[in-house]
Design goal:
This is DUF4133 domain-containing protein. The chain is mainly alpha-helical and 116 residues long. It has four helices and two strands; from the N terminus they run E-E-H-H-H-H.
């Protein structure tokens, strides 16, 4: 008897939901939960639904627009790479050579301490 095996071809593909990839799904979910909490807090404070609904709907549409724009601009891992690149310094300034001249002698001292 011949047996038929199904091959899952999407094993190494990133998670995607309606165009959002990877981390952006989590960003959107966290934003929606925060909007729900904001709606509940504003409702308990009592300004009225006429004021609350436009604010929450406006913030929700801004959230969707921003998350989809970031997803399409940077891709799956591009935002993390962009933020990491922004965290790098433009240049390094050393006012003396003491750090570099003491490297070899401190390495010799470390080797002597290890070999006891």
């Amino acid at each position: 008897m011949a047996s038929i095996y199904n091959i899952n071809k999407g094993v190494s593909k990133p998670i995607e939901f309606r165009g959002l990839k990877g981390q952006y799904i989590a960003w959107l979910a966290i934003g929606l939960v925060l909007l729900l909490i904001a709606f509940a807090v504003l409702y308990l404070l009592g300004p009225g639904l006429v004021v609350i609904l436009p604010v929450i709907l406006g913030l929700g549409s801004l959230l969707f627009f921003t998350v989809f724009r970031l997803s399409h601009r940077f891709g799956e891992h591009g935002l993390m790479k962009f933020m990491a690149k922004r965290g790098l310094p433009k240049s390094l300034i050393f006012r003396s050579r003491r750090l570099f001249t003491g490297l070899k002698s401190s390495a010799i001292h470390l080797d002597k301490k290890k070999s006891w």
